[in-house]
Design brief:
The complex is a heterotrimer of chains A (about 625), B (about 170) and C (about 110). Chain A has about 625 residues and is mostly helical. Chain A has 25 helices and two strands. Chain A has a two-stranded antiparallel sheet. In chain A, a hairpin with a 2-residue loop joins strand 1 and strand 2. Chain B has two domains: about 90 residues, NADH-ubiquinone/plastoquinone oxidoreductase chain 6, subunit NuoJ (Four Helix Bundle (Hemerythrin (Met), subunit A), Up-down Bundle); about 35 residues. In chain B, helix 1 packs antiparallel against helix 2 and helix 2 packs antiparallel against helix 3. In chain C, helix 1 packs antiparallel against helix 2 and helix 2 runs antiparallel to helix 3. The chains are: A mainly alpha (about 625), B mainly alpha (about 170), C mainly alpha (about 110). Chains in contact: A-B, A-C, B-C. Chains B and C meet through helix 1, helix 2, helix 3, helix 4 and helix 5 of B and helix 1, helix 2 and helix 3 of C.
């Protein structure tokens, strides 16, 4: 498999170039087909790589392709690192990516500009693969920036809509803020270790003592990068807005893969973070705050994609809590299961939106259960998975996070448990409102309702299966099954948090969570289906907490008035007073000043040749005198 | 001592005198004639300095060609009258003062340099046609050839400027 | 064959050159006839030539005389073009008074 590894990222890149060049000449079957085949081939090679990595005698290998940057004592190879972590990420990216490509063929078939869409998707896969395969921080950063770019391009895919464009810009700018932190972190890494290669950096880091200030600074800077990319507080607001993009994009980029890049990066750098408990604590707290905060906002959102977006932010918060408490493999476990069920939910939402002729407001939906049987069933599986009903995927990973959080600190555990309850509330609220009750859309939408084509439902079914069984790769101890993922990832995790909760606690946790979930399911069913209560229209929202939540704590408004507005004022001030009033005046004044001056000097130009000669001779005398005096 | 200096002194006196007369003569033709004479005395200096080749070239180019051109021009525009209005006395005084200052400054610059000149005169023969010919066609062959282009350009330029503008 | 420099110090030639040069400058300042001004410029050139030759002989270095040769060539070219211009000016203005040549001004 070794010699084919370079093909993994190159295939999507070739797909991007091919589709990009042929562009509108391609019918959707072709553009989507090329894109899907490229990703599928990458997936097959990734499978082969994964098989090889699984072998007992496998040693992580670094494949250097060429010397990328050489300046002074800085040498950066363009190299890939194949180890357990990248192998598993390759599978997730190409596997989920392939399914979403297939889905997009069905979803985008009305879209005239589908070639652009598929070429961007392939480009995204290329950069994402670069990100996970890079063997040093710079290759990783190249991928990191590339996925940001693709995210921007795809959020603003319908670029004729100004609001979508603004969302795209917002995502890009917020990511840039994080990227700056990441970049500074990389600089600091180079300064400290003299290298940016993972291997050398981690070898070097092991010499440092715990809580070394330099390591802590590096970790915090890297984490700032992760905050931007993975939409944590306070840079999360771009992710809900990013839902402006086509739904498959939301599924692929803003749920399954790109936003988990931050988690991947932290897992990759676990040696550094392990050395800095202080930074880890910050990560745990930020993750916890984000998880809780986003979950509360999710309670009151009425846009089907926005609910899922806030849920994504919240789940990412979970993962960061796991990272913060030192359970890197657990975080990755949740990344994988989350990729399955969140992609499933988004694609299901896309299917619903597709059937509803573009309607996204859950207050205008309802009773879609009969019309969209496959979508309904798979969406239900996704909902159950995310809320953590055993034995679906979400249960295992979420339970593991809760368990390690419990081992770390009780308050974190408590808040995280509450968040998990909130997750169940908003997810089932969404589920009941969309699929049960009465149909609340227009007549036109009603006649138009239809189940999606197979190209869309098959990925849904595959993802539903994965969401159901994906959790078995990480069974908790009490089931006496091996924790496959933990064992698999053993070599790349330096020191994993080893917390073995007592069996009774584990049983209690499972039992309580199941009971709580049942209660919530019944309660939400009672509220939204039996009593048929609907979320209030925006205009008759009661004041207080519901209004606060619906308006997302006014975070956007706060950012607006705290950062954007002052910046605007400052720019205005600089524009009118400094630029126009001062600099422009100087620049424009140069002309008239020179004219006036030359108007005076012009009279020295008498046209009298004798005068010229005279002054020339005087000048020569002056020069000679000067030399005489000076020397 | 005086005997030995005599050729130089005589020639130098004649040079300065004729040069002064170039400036002071009323009629342009007289100026030209004095200038020719001045050039001949300078040629004499070249002979004294053992620069035979330069002497020949000097006489041919300056006295022969350039001065004939001047005379020819004078004749051409028929300017042998004292129609030159004199400058005002103020200008004359200023010119004299400036020229005097220039002289003074130059002399003082020269004396200020101190005794940097070799007391022993080099015995190399440098002024002969043989030596200069080798120099010109050896080290200086490129400038020498470029000079011919310069002269050609000057000739074309002079013809272009001098011919009557037929369009107007 | 000894040159004059074995009996006359080089300073004499320096003095002579300076005097001739100053006379040239004075002529340029004094006279208004463009042709005479032109001749005075030639005089200045010759003063420099003389000095170059004197130093060339003093140092036994032929380069100085080669320079004089080039100066003469340039002077010849200059005179040819300059006089052509003067004739042209005379044809147009009917004068060679430099006072009258004052069209190039503000």
């Amino acid at each position: 498999m070794h010699q084919f590894i370079w093909l993994i990222p190159i295939l999507p890149l070739v797909g991007f170039i091919l589709i990009g060049i042929l562009n509108k000449r391609l019918p959707i079957q072709w553009s989507g087909g090329i894109a899907s085949v490229a990703v599928f081939l990458s997936f097959l090679i990734s499978l082969g790589v994964f098989k090889e990595v699984q072998m007992d005698n496998f040693v992580p290998e670094r494949i250097v392709y060429f010397n990328w940057i050489a300046a002074g004592n800085l040498t950066i190879d363009f190299a890939f690192l194949i180890d357990q972590l990248s192998a598993i990420m390759l599978l997730v990216v190409t596997g989920v990516g392939f399914l979403i490509h297939i889905y997009s063929i069905g979803y985008m078939h009305h879209e005239a500009d589908h070639s652009r869409f598929f070429s961007y998707l392939n480009l995204f896969i290329f950069f994402m693969l670069l990100l996970v395969m890079g063997s040093n921080y710079i290759v990783m950063f190249a991928g990191w920036e590339g996925v940001g770019l693709c995210s921007y391009l795809l959020i603003g895919f319908w670029f004729k809509n100004t609001e979508y464009n603004n969302a795209a810009k917002k995502a890009f700018i917020m990511n840039r803020i994080g990227d700056l932190g990441f970049l500074l972190g990389v600089f600091l890494i180079f300064m400290t270790f003299g290298s940016v290669s993972f291997k050398e950096v981690f070898e070097g880091a092991k010499q440092f003592s715990s809580n070394d200030p330099t390591i802590t600074a590096i970790c915090i800077l890297l984490f700032i990068g992760a905050i931007g990319k993975s939409a944590q507080l306070p840079l999360y607001t771009w992710l809900p807005d990013a839902m402006a993009g086509p739904t498959p994009v939301s599924a692929l980029i803003h749920a399954a893969t790109m936003v988990t890049a931050g988690i991947y990066m932290v897992v990759r750098s676990n040696v550094l973070f392990e050395l800095s408990p202080y930074a880890s604590e910050i990560i745990a707290i930020v993750g916890l705050a984000t998880a809780f905060f986003a979950a509360t906002i999710g309670l009151k959102q009425n846009d089907i994609k926005k609910v899922l977006a806030y849920s994504t932010v919240s789940q990412l918060g979970y993962m960061f809590v796991a990272l913060g408490v030192g359970a890197y493999d657990t975080a990755l476990f949740h990344v994988i299961t989350h990729a399955f069920f969140k992609a499933l939910l988004f694609l299901g939402a896309g299917s619903v939106i597709h059937a509803m002729s573009g309607e996204q407001d859950i207050r205008r939906m309802g009773a879609l259960k009969g019309k969209l049987p496959i979508t309904h069933l798979t969406f239900l599986i996704g909902t159950l998975a995310i809320t953590g009903i055993p034995p679906l995927a979400g249960f295992f990973s979420k339970d593991e996070i809760l368990a390690v959080a419990h081992g770390y600190s009780l308050p974190i555990f408590t808040l995280l448990s509450i968040t998990s309850v909130l997750t169940a509330v908003y997810m089932f609220r969404l589920y009941w409102l969309v699929f049960y009750g009465n149909f609340r859309g227009t007549e036109h939408q009603k006649t138009h309702l239809h189940e999606s084509p197979y190209s869309m439902t098959i990925p849904l079914m595959v993802l539903a299966v994965l969401s159901s069984i994906g959790g078995f790769i990480g069974m908790p101890e009490i089931f006496h099954a091996p924790h496959l993922l933990k064992e698999f990832l053993q070599p790349i995790i330096w020191k994993s948090a080893t917390y073995h909760p007592s069996h009774s606690f584990e049983y209690a946790l499972i039992a309580v969570s199941i009971v709580a979930l049942m209660i919530i399911i019944y309660a939400t069913y009672h509220t939204y289906v039996k009593r048929g209560q609907l979320p209030e229209e925006d205009k008759d929202l009661p004041a207080g907490i519901p209004k606060l939540l619906t308006n997302k704590y006014y975070v956007d408004e706060i950012y607006n008035s705290l950062i954007t507005r002052p910046l605007d004022y400052m720019s205005g001030f600089f524009s009118t007073y400094i630029e126009k009033g001062f600099i422009d005046k100087i620049v424009n004044g140069t002309g008239p000043a020179l004219q006036g001056l030359s108007g005076v000097l012009r009279f020295a130009q008498t046209g009298n040749i004798g005068g010229y000669v005279f002054s020339m001779v005087v000048g020569i005398i002056a020069i000679l005198l000067l030399t005489l005096i000076v020397y | 001592m005086l005997n030995q200096n005599l050729p130089f002194m005589i020639l130098a006196t004649l040079s300065v005198f004729s040069a002064l007369m170039v400036v002071l003569s009323r009629k342009p033709v007289h100026s030209v004639l004095y200038l020719i004479f001045c050039f001949f005395t300078i040629g004499g200096h070249y002979l004294l300095l053992n620069a035979q080749f330069l002497f020949a070239v000097h006489i041919i180019v300056y006295a022969g060609a350039i001065m004939v051109l001047f005379l020819f021009t004078l004749m051409f525009i028929n300017l042998n009258k004292e129609l030159e209005p004199h400058k005002s006395n103020l200008v004359k005084a200023a010119a004299t003062i400036v020229a005097g200052t220039l002289l003074l400054v130059m002399v003082s610059t020269v004396t200020d340099t101190g005794n940097i000149f070799p007391t022993q005169v080099s015995q190399n023969e440098v002024g002969t046609v043989a030596v200069l010919g080798k120099k010109l066609y050896g080290d200086y062959v490129l400038p020498f050839e470029l000079t011919s282009i310069l002269l050609l350009a000057a000739m074309v330029g002079a013809v272009m400027i001098g011919k009557k503008n037929t369009e107007s | 064959m000894n040159s004059i420099l074995s009996v006359v110090p080089i300073e004499y030639y320096l003095g002579l050159s300076v005097i001739l040069f100053t006379i040239g400058v004075m002529g340029v300042l004094f006279r208004r006839n463009a042709i005479i001004v032109f001749m005075c410029i030639e005089l200045m050139l010759n003063a420099v030539n003389l000095l170059l030759t004197a130093f060339s002989t003093l140092h036994g270095e032929a380069g100085g005389q080669v320079m004089v040769f080039f100066i003469m060539a340039v002077a010849a070219a200059e005179v040819a073009v300059g006089l052509a211009i003067l004739v042209m000016i005379y044809n147009n203005l009917r004068t060679v008074d430099i006072k009258e040549m004052n069209k190039l001004k503000w």
